[in-house]
Amino acid sequence: MTNQTNIRFIDSTITIEKNTIRWENHLIKTASISQIWMGSCTNKPFPVHFVLILLLIALSGTIPGNIIGILMALVLYPIAWFYWNRKQENSKGINFEISSGKIYSFVCNNEEFTRQAYDLISDLISKNSAASKFQINFLGDGKIIDNSETEKELSSDSQMVNVMASRLNEPIIRELQNLFTHYTQNNEINKEILSLIEKTIQSLNANDKIEVAKSFSSFITMGLIKDCNELGLNALINEIKANIY
Q1: Is residue 245 classed as helix, strand or coil in its secondary structure?
Q2: Which pTM was predicted?
Q3: End-to-end alpha-carbon separation of the chain, Å?
Q4: Cα dihedral: 18, 145, 23, 19 (round 10)
Q5: What contacts 24+ positions apart, CB below 8 Å, involve 47-56?
Q6: Strand 133-137 and strand 143-146: pairing?
Q7: What is the DSSP secondary structure assignment for residue 187, as one 8-state letter?
Q8: Residues 6+ apart with CB under 8 A from 50
Q9: What ranges in the chain are assigned the alpha helix state H?
Q10: What confidence tens digit (pLDDT) does each residue in 58-75 have?
Q11: Residue 163 scores a pLDDT above 60
Q12: Maximum distance among all alpha carbons in the chain?
């Protein structure tokens, strides 16, 4: 694992949904993850070149105060670096390595939670579970929120509402289809009117009240209401009035 960039996140919240992992301003596809493991962050080599540069500056200096300051930095910097590196080694997190070689590490103070999160993420990635939606919060002792069932329930409820709305709108849709047939039988077919009727039917089926109101407003401005009266499309006329007036 040499020449890799390791980016470490503490107290982050990641969302796993539709084969993607999102957090803060980042998003990666699970397919791009080459490996995942639980453990310490990747060790970085001691920056020998930086120390040598400081040493050369100290040896080439002429002002005693500057030389002493640089020599003190040469002593203190390795101590601070080793302390920081030991702290990194002791912190266990979940590490993702993507195909580019970049490593993202997520750290939580609770090692038991980290293991639970690791098992969950590994399972989701291995099963390629696009229908699942989880939020994993690494703040404090950690928290896992399963939004999968909520998404399914919302989707199911939405479908049920659309089915019920479609049944209620059946008489109106039927009259819109009659109006559509009427315009196709004219010698000069107005494509704009036919497109408007088709769009209105789609909006009614989707129970999109805003788009339905816009379409019915166009019915009046384009003069379709007159033909609706002549054809006796009473259900459609009443619905237009209910949405406009």
Answers
A1: coil
A2: 0.45
A3: 70
A4: -20
A5: 47/81, 50/77, 51/77, 51/78
A6: antiparallel
A7: S
A8: 77
A9: 48-60, 64-90, 111-127, 148-168, 170-184, 191-205, 209-221, 224-231, 234-244
A10: 566 666 666 676 667 666
A11: no
A12: 104
Q: CA-to-CA distance for 123 and 180, rounded, in angstroms?
A: 52
Helices 191-205 + 148-168 axis angle, to 10: 120
**Cβ atoms of residues 180 and 198 within 8 Å:** yes
Contact 45, 3 (CB under 8 A): no
Q: SS3 for 42? A: coil
Residue 6, classified by CB atoms within 10 Å of its CB into exposed (0-12), middle (13-18) or buried (19+), is: middle
How far apart CA 228 and CA 178 sit, in angstroms, is 10
Q: Which residue matches tokens 């659309």? A: 162
State how far the Cα of 73 lies from the Cα of 70, in Å rounded to an integer. 5
Question: How many CB atoms sit inside 10 A of residue 116's CB?
Answer: 14
Q: Give yes or no for a contact between 114 and 142, defined as CB atoms under 8 angstroms apart.
A: yes
**Integer Cα distance of 84 and 82 in angstroms:** 5
Give tens-digit pLDDT for 81-98: 666 666 555 567 888 899
Of the candidates 196, 195, 234, which has an alpha carbon nearest to the alpha carbon of residue 216? 196
Alpha-carbon distance values, 203 to 3, 30, 171, 173, 233 (Å): 55, 36, 15, 10, 19
Per the DSSP assignment, residues forming a β-bridge with 35 are 97
Q: What are the tokens at 87? A: 């702290």
